[in-house]
Automatic annotation (TrEMBL), chains A, B:
Taxonomic source organism: Microvirga guangxiensis
Alphabetized Gene3D superfamilies for the sequence: 3.90.1200.10, Phosphorylase Kinase, domain 1
Protein name per the record: Homoserine kinase
Pfam families: APH
Catalytic activity reported: L-homoserine + ATP = O-phospho-L-homoserine + ADP + H(+)
InterPro entries tied to this protein: Aminoglycoside_PTrfase, Homoserine_kinase_II, Kinase-like_dom_sf, Pseudomonas-type_ThrB
Signal peptide: none
Pathway assignment: Amino-acid biosynthesis; L-threonine biosynthesis; L-threonine from L-aspartate: step 4/5
Keyword vocabulary terms for this entry: Amino-acid biosynthesis, ATP-binding, Kinase, Nucleotide-binding, Threonine biosynthesis, Transferase
EC number: 2.7.1.39
Broad class of enzyme this protein falls into: transferase
GO molecular function: ATP binding; homoserine kinase activity
Length: 321, 321
């Protein structure tokens, strides 16, 4: 939940006058996303989201994110379409913030996905990968292998206060990943943050993928690994093989994995678990006093790492032979 | 802004299954209201607000508030309509809270109303008073004359820390109000909290009156006085006579004030200013540490009281002869 920036009527009117989206009938701050300020906007032309980018999104990255969403939406992917203003640009400013208007997508983020949801998610992920293939821009993944040692450096001294032995476990895992990290995998646009809150469903169909603000250029199979981590573990920490099977089968029905990708899947799962463990650990150790947002538990991903270290091949994630 | 209670998908589905409002397409917590938790709800049948009542609304008062909104909406007033569930009741429970679904109203709350807005507001207020006349229930005003001395008792000892002389000024004003408070004025349902955030406009037309959770049975002209206080002062504390004229003319075009009401208007303005000064003062002196919501300034209403003490008759508020 977050509405960080209040927009006055005058500012909103001035901003909307630069668009061709009809007369505003209603707007309300919505409690969604922790990075940005979002307003639900109802006009005579339809429903939209007005997003004001707060400090955590780098303004220099916005042309990539917005261009990508327009590219994907135009390819028919269910993702928000940034609306161009009368100058033909999606990006404007309101209340001192970079701001966009995107189309509103119906659908509900499921907190406890079923195998059916996982299957649909797998298919949508593969569609995203295919639809992004001819997108012209690229953006390196700022939170991949090279970032992990520096990230860990911010937390290493205090890591054992979170869990005994965490520092040593992480050092060893980072050394392993440094050696074993795969190269030359099929690469393109990945979402890189496709957690359950970023996927809308109507019934068991995916109606929307949102929040492209970690999207970047990296191995497709790394995105699959992120989703296995985010969608296929139960709350007690166990891996649900049925959900893994559904997710991978859903993905492969649209874009079959190569032999190299299949072989790399266990190490990619370890790497993506490491990425979320580390960013959560740094956040956990740096909660400002009086913070509203409860940090996410880094140990959830430490436990997932433990699971992945015992996986020998992709079949243990549910990949059909 | 406030989303106090998180509703799980399962709870929401279970709750909505008791209504006949179609399939849910989307729901989002909205940052609106400081008393309750509100979700914007989009279904195959339309748009709604799901409200969960938090502790500050007394559950025993809900049948009055909900019955009143249904009565007013059925009379054609632009106010939210609480939707009955399949048992024919508007009130249910979700996530342990009393909860209702009300129809969504388009419109925008103006932060700086013009005289045109004030005129439309006056008309809408009079329509509310007329539409409420045959509503069968009543509810005494718990924040009128008899409540002010006890309220002041909670703040008296510290009042001068907020502004020098405030305690003495307030004691004298309370003594005056006790003597001068009018009796026998035309009485009925009043909104009692019709500040600018509770009135939606599309253009300069009123499209909705919301937030009936202070509604009660009291003098109609007291509601007019509340609105003069809330709508016709400028941010620098000056009274805008043009706005007062517009508000009173708008009201009288629908429901002319009686001679007795006109005579009482200055003392009613003093009383309603006292009511908001006192509740704000108590809140101001009792801000919990780490509170999110900035309390409203009691001195704004102390200054309005000062203005009203120098008013001799209703013409000084803009009443046309």
């Amino acid at each position: 939940m977050a509405v960080y920036t209040e927009v006055s009527d005058e500012e909103l009117e001035g901003f909307l006058a630069t668009y061709d989206i009809g007369t505003v009938l209603s707007y309300k701050g919505i409690a969604e996303g922790v990075e940005n300020t979002n307003y639900f906007l109802h006009t005579t032309e339809g429903s939209y989201i007005l997003t004001l980018y707060e400090k955590r999104v780098r303004e220099a990255d916005l042309p990539f994110f917005l261009g990508l969403m327009q590219h994907l939406a135009n390819k028919g992917l269910n993702c928000p379409l940034p609306v161009n203003n009368r100058q033909g640009q999606p990006l404007g400013r309101v209340a001192g913030r970079p701001a966009v208007i995107i189309t509103f997508l119906d659908g509900i983020a499921v907190r406890r996905p079923t195998a059916k949801h996982c299957g649909a998610l797998g298919g949508a992920l593969a569609q995203l990968h295919l639809a992004g293939q001819d997108f012209a821009m690229d953006r390196p993944n700022a939170l991949s292998l090279d970032a992990w040692a520096p990230l860990f450096g911010l937390a290493e001294a205090q890591a054992d206060t979170v869990s005994g032995g965490l520092a040593e476990r992480t050092r060893r895992e980072l050394a392993y990943l440094q050696d074993a990290w795969p190269k030359g995998l099929p690469t393109g646009i990945i979402h890189a943050d496709l957690f359950t809150d970023n996927v809308f469903f109507i019934g068991s169909e995916v109606s929307g993928l949102i929040d492209f603000y970690f999207a970047c250029t990296d191995a497709f199979a790394y995105d699959v690994a992120i989703c296995l981590n985010a969608w296929c573990f139960e709350q007690d920490g166990s891996f649900n093989l049925t959900k893994g099977q559904a997710l991978l089968a859903g993905y492969q029905a649209v874009r079959p994995l190569t032999a190299q990708e299949i072989e790399a899947l266990p190490v990619l799962c370890r790497g993506s678990a490491m990425r979320f463990m580390l960013t959560r650990l740094v956040d956990w150790l740096n909660v400002p006093p009086g913070a509203l947002v409860k940090p996410k538990d880094p140990l959830e991903y430490d436990r997932k790492l433990h699971f992945h270290r015992h996986v020998r091949n992709a079949r243990e994630y549910g990949l059909e032979a």
